[in-house]
Amino acid sequence: MTEELARVLAASKRIVFFGGAGVSTESGIPDFRSGDGLYQRGGARYAPEEILSHSFFVRHPEEFFDYYRTNLLHPNARPNPAHLALARLEAAGRLTAVITQNIDGLHQAAGSKRVLELHGSVHRNRCQRCGRGFGLDAILRSSGLPRCDCGGIIKPEVVLYEEALDPDVLDAALSHLAAADTLVVGGTSLVVYPAAGLVREFRGRNLVLINREPTGYDDLATLVVREPIGAAFGAAVPG
Ligand code: ZN
Fold this sequence. Notes:
Blueprint: H1 2-10, E1 15-19, H2 21-25, E2 39-41, E3 44-46, H3 48-51, H4 54-59, H5 61-71, H6 81-91, E4 95-100, H7 106-110, E5 115-117, E6 120-127, E7 133-134, H8 136-141, E8 154-158, H9 167-179, E9 182-186, H10 195-201, E10 206-210, E11 223-225, H11 229-236
Parallel strand pairs: 1-4, 1-9, 4-5, 9-10, 10-11
Antiparallel strand pairs: 2-3, 6-7, 6-8
Helix pairs in contact: 1-11, 6-11
Bound molecules: zinc ion.
């Protein structure tokens, strides 16, 4: 199947990659939705979707940052062969954009330039009072509530539940999809908003799905690859 993938990629001129959590699990970053993922504190138990919501952030910022630092920050994670292959495709002028639901910055670490981060990034953080921007270090170095010199709380520019996606990022993703000849979807079962809707916008020739589990879109795909994404891409796009 990687021969098929290699053939499709070699014949494409405007590839767009759309990736989910499965792209990063091979770099050792667990999907926070997997496992039981429950968070217990002060006798209360919370689901990840509750902790990572805007209203929880406002009401319980200490608990939010406790969970966030432990479960969403992986500063030692490194790009895997999938990230590196996508960066090579872009450098070769055959891939126009990576659209990702991940917030870990590993595509940029691999060398990708046009990365559309639908859910934001742990590498961008902003003081809620004065608007000053901070890197990941400001969150890693602090304990409890990360605070700016002005006293304001520094909030990660990660899209929380109940928060809207950045319309500019969404528009850019749609433009790239509309102009793509090949869409490769990897590491997502395509059930999380807005992934499914984005795939429906694609009008190009080849829809390739790389996922270990079946998805609801397998019937629409021109090629389905059931292999680990790093192995599939590493073989299809030799370095
Ligand atoms: Zn400030």
